[in-house]
Design a protein that fits this description.
The protein is an alpha/beta fold. It has 2 domains: 151 residues, Rossmann fold (3-Layer(aba) Sandwich), CATH 3.40.50; 255 residues, Dihydrodipicolinate Reductase, domain 2. Helix content is 35%, strand content 22%. The chain has 12 helices and 16 strands. Strands 7, 8, 9, 10, 11, 12, 13, 14, 15 and 16 form a 10-stranded mixed sheet that branches. A 6-stranded parallel sheet has the order 3-2-1-4-5-6, sandwiched between helices. Helix 4 packs across helix 5 and helix 5 packs parallel to helix 6. The protein binds NADP nicotinamide-adenine-dinucleotide phosphate.
Length: 482
């Protein structure tokens, strides 16, 4: 039996005709319904400009839910029954995003649906913005202006990207704060819905031994890797505008970095975690030198439909950062991420300092594997027969989900919104801090035309990224995996 949401709610998806809604939001609502987490009084509304009948929209919803059910990894039982029960609560409203009258009509539509379903209008109203960021502002404004009373519990979920740089993110947050209180806003980075990423906080919050090790003074370096096997494919047009620095580094990887290096707050509430993450993110430091950054592009990228001719957009990025805090003084943080590589791999490798007499041996390492395996290992030198060898003494596999309790990442986050829990969402200051360091890197790259290294598809990593290491004996630690 899963924890149930007992209070009735309305769930509106703005941009319900789009890809994100079909690929992630409908299947997530369906997955939560299949775990019987929903109360009997709920209203789900798809809002978009496209003209669709109720039936057409319900068919879209059913198609997405069925696809999720039929997926080879799906653990969802009783698909048909769940779909039949849920679909009765699903409705469609066609309206413009920038017309206040359409929002008035949409609120009347909610009243009409509630009457039809013979329920009171639920107080909790979740609104999910599954639209391009250019449409955020008119919806935010009209939703607030059309609202009949401030007594309802209106929650707004916005998905990254938040702005294009620090300055536009600031403007967006100022705009939001004209209409909403901070506690109403859920800023979503879907990486934080991954159970493996969430498990970093679980590991750190519950294991004193790890927190004693994760002090800057004991660490010689940290390496964070996020490699993907896939290329840009159907997202080519969007990706070519942004590049991997904004797409992966700006939020996903800076979040992982912050979770590993932040101080663990005593109070386990979301605000305290956000405060500590922000402290790290705002202390991130990039020295603007060519030796501290590497950009690459996979072979054949420029021939993809949607990519600009002679595009310099990076599909690979590696950098060396520092944390400007006394305890992290001199500890380099290496981050690398790229597409079309040999295998999908997201890991963090923490290397510990050696004593002077331990010159020619491997350092002790703490390895956190986030994707595709979810594991933590400690590698130590130990005595084996007559020699000392490098061995793994501790391995723990985190079983993020078992059988029917597996949820997709958006479903975890939607559940948190329904429970009004913010731990796995971002705060405004965190986002501004991570834009700040991203902007510094991008500014440097725009001033100093760095070479874009072309790398073969399927490489383990592009040749040349080892040049970020300036100390003898340092190298990228490759995890062999399965
Ligand atoms: N797709 C993904 O996997 C993914 C992953 C992470 C984040 N995101 C982010 O989530 C948001 C939505 O993604 P998406 O892929 O669903 O986008 P999308 O398909 O381009 O847009 C969603 C819906 O918004 C409306 N729309 C699109 N462009 C518009 C415009 N210029 N003006 C007004 N309305 C417009 C369209 O609905 P109507 O015309 O019917 O109103 C469209 O069906 C984006 O900001 C994206 O960056 C997407």
């Amino acid at each position: 039996m899963f924890e149930k949401i007992t209070s009735p709610f309305i769930f509106t998806i703005f941009g319900a005709s789009g890809d994100l809604a079909k690929l992630k939001i409908f299947p997530s609502l369906f997955a939560l319904a299949s775990q019987k987490r929903f109360p009997k009084d709920l209203i789900i509304i798809g809002y978009a400009r496209s003209k669709k009948t109720q039936e057409e929209f319900r068919n879209d919803f059913i198609k997405s839910a069925k696809k999720a059910c039929e997926h080879k990894d799906s653990k969802i039982p009783y698909c048909e029954t769940t779909i039949n029960n849920l679909i009765k609560h699903v409705h469609y409203f066609s309206g413009q995003y920038d017309e206040l009258e359409d929002f008035d009509a949409y609120l009347e539509f909610i009243e009409f649906i509630a009457k039809k379903q013979k329920i009171h209008i639920p107080k909790i109203h979740i609104t999910y913005f599954s639209v391009p960021p250019s449409v955020f502002q008119p919806i935010l404004q009209n939703l607030a202006l059309a609202r009949k009373s401030e007594k309802d519990d209106l929650r707004v979920v916005l998905e990254k990207p938040f702005g294009e740089d620090e300055s536009s993110a600031k403007k967006l947050f100022h705009f939001i704060s004209r209409f909403y209180r901070e506690d109403q806003i859920f800023l979503l980075d879907h990486y934080l819905g991954k159970t493996s990423v969430q498990s970093i906080l679980t590991l750190r919050h519950n294991n004193m031994i790890l927190n004693m090790l994760l002090k800057g003074r004991e660490i010689s370096s940290i390496q964070i890797t996020a490699h993907e096997e896939v290329g840009v494919e159907e997202r080519a047009g969007y990706f070519d505008e942004v590049g991997i620095i904004k797409d992966m580094f700006q939020s996903h990887l800076t979040q992982i970095l912050a979770m590993i290096t932040m101080s663990i707050p005593i109070t386990a509430d979301a605000q305290s975690f956000h405060r500590e993450k922000e402290a790290i993110l705002s202390a991130l430091d990039f020295s603007p030198r060519p030796a501290n950054v590497f950009i690459g592009q996979y072979e054949g990228y420029q021939k993809i439909k949607g990519v600009k001719k002679n595009s310099r957009t990076e599909t690979y990025f590696a950098t060396k950062l520092k944390i400007d805090r006394e305890t992290w003084y001199g500890v380099p943080i290496f981050v690398r991420t790229g597409k079309k590589l040999a295998k999908k791999l997201t890991t963090a490798v923490i290397e510990f300092k050696k004593l002077p007499f331990q010159k020619n041996i491997e350092p002790n390492r703490l390895i956190i594997e986030l994707q595709p395996r979810e594991m933590i290992h400690i590698k130590l030198i130990n005595q084996y027969g007559e020699s000392s060898e490098y061995h793994e003494i501790g391995t723990s596999e985190s079983i993020a989900c078992r059988g029917e309790d597996c949820l997709p990442e958006h479903a975890h986050l939607l559940l948190d919104v329904l429970k009004n829990e913010k731990l796995h969402f971002l705060s405004f200051p965190e986002i501004l801090a991570s834009w700040n360091i991203t902007d510094k890197i991008l500014y440097f790259l725009s001033r100093k035309k760095q070479p874009v290294h072309v790398y073969p598809k399927g490489s383990t990593s592009p040749p040349g990224i080892e040049e970020l290491f300036q100390k003898k004996g340092e190298y990228w630690f490759e995890i062999r995996g399965e």
